[in-house]
Amino acid sequence: GNSVTQMEGPVTLSEEAFLTINCTYTATGYPSLFWYVQYPGEGLQLLLKATKADDKGSNKGFEATYRKETTSFHLEKGSVQVSDSAVYFCALSDPSEDSSYKLIFGSGTRLLVRP
Amino acid sequence: DGGITQSPKYLFRKEGQNVTLSCEQNLNHDAMYWYRQDPGQGLRLIYYSQIVNDFQKGDIAEGYSVSREKKESFPLTVTSAQKNPTAFYLCASRDRGSNQPQHFGDGTRLSIL
Questions:
Q1: Are B45 and A100 inside 8 Å of each other by CB?
Q2: Between chain A's N and C termini, which has fewer beta carbons within 10 Å?
């Protein structure tokens, strides 16, 4: 079945450092890929998405490229801020396998940014 | 503002009691979903509904029930059969179209008294 694997956290960085959070996936079809962010005590907010190979999703300085050859969708940001501290979830949806369009999530990566 | 409203934010359940979590959306989305989040884990699908008066079990439906009588509402009942209900519950909705993302509410945290 389909699955998503994320690097374990917490990831601790100083302000203005470069961020990479690794995400790899297993899918039988042609999934869409997403990054969601969760701030403490809140729901998930869509950060960015990519729907086909080589697509690059971007938002608020974050980027991720859909790499079919390596089955990866790594999240990057060139200069993190304290306000980026949150839990980041990689997820996929594969309607070719499941018509519910349900999201399959990784276990999340906590990011802590220090001033 | 359009969005998804979950209530209450915190809920406590006594042994043997059923409790109902509310989820309302004004985004005019056809599909709605309930997920469960446990500490340090990703979200798992409980139930989903793609149209009014129809819903389907997700991966962990045992001990839960739902209804979809109106397009904008998708309440979740945690029954006494759910032996480990303590978790963070998230409702989501999605517009039509194969590439549309899911949008989430702010969640309800359920605890056992």
A1: yes
A2: C
